[in-house]
Each structure stands twice: as C-alpha cells, then as structure tokens.
C-alpha cells in the first residue's frame, strides 16, 4: 500500500504501508502492480486511472467528484463510499471488491482501450 500522507506517521500503520509527502500519481498508477486506486474522484485522477486501467474506490467530497464517481460506478470500474459514514471495514471491503472481482479490472481495461483508441493528428 502506497499512501500520500502529510503529518506524523500513524501508530497503527500496517507494515505493508508506505507513506510519502508526495507521489507522482500518474507514474504510480502506471506501475504494473497497481491494483486499486483510492480517490476523491477528481477529474485528473480519474483520467489517469482510466488511462492505466486501474479500478477505483471513490470517496467523493464536493464539486464534480460525486458525479465523476457515479459515472465510474455505472461503467463498472469503481465502488463509491460515503465520506460521512465510511468505516475501516467499509474501506477494506471496497478495496477487496475492486481487487478480487475481476470485472472491475476488465471494465477498467476496456475503458483504457477506448481512451487509447484515438485518431492521431
């Protein structure tokens, strides 16, 4: 698990989690071992996840984020969680769902293929 986090390292941090002040998100999503992307649903992050075919867990906050994540859910590439009610168990279950249910990866790869299939000028 790679987590962009600014602040004091949480005491309950799992041994398999690395935290960084800054991460080149597009490079991270392009890594062959990227299996899921936890996102607020901003446009840039969604386009980067689509480009690389990475399924998403969305926790939208405001503006365009809820609509963006609804579109991704409708396309079968994302699970949405409600920021006001999400629990640790909800987050764990959502991440496991997009990783274990292969349809999320298949749908993300389908969108990636569509995104890459553009005329060149």
Automatic annotation (TrEMBL):
Entries under Gene3D superfamilies matching the protein: Glycogen Phosphorylase B
Primary enzyme class: transferase
Membrane-related topology note: Single-pass membrane protein
Catalytic activity: glucuronate acceptor + UDP-alpha-D-glucuronate = acceptor beta-D-glucuronoside + UDP + H(+)
Annotated Gene Ontology cellular component terms: membrane
EC number: 2.4.1.17
Organism: Pundamilia nyererei
Designated name of the protein: UDP-glucuronosyltransferase
Location(s), subcellular: Membrane
Record's keyword terms, sorted: Glycosyltransferase, Transferase
Family stated for the protein in its record: Belongs to the UDP-glycosyltransferase family.
Membrane-spanning residues: none
A GO term, aspect molecular function: glucuronosyltransferase activity
């Amino acid at each position: 698990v790679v987590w962009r986090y600014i602040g004091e390292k949480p005491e309950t941090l799992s041994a398999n989690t690395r935290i960084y002040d800054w991460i080149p998100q597009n490079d991270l999503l392009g890594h062959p071992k990227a299996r899921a992307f936890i996102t607020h649903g901003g446009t840039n992050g969604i386009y980067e996840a689509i480009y690389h075919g990475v399924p998403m867990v969305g926790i939208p906050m405001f503006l365009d984020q809820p609509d963006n994540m609804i579109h991704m859910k409708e396309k079968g590439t994302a699970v949405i969680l409600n920021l006001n009610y999400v629990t640790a168990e909800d987050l764990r279950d959502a991440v496991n769902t997009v990783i274990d249910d292969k349809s999320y990866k298949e749908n993300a790869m389908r969108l990636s293929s569509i995104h890459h299939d553009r005329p060149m000028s």
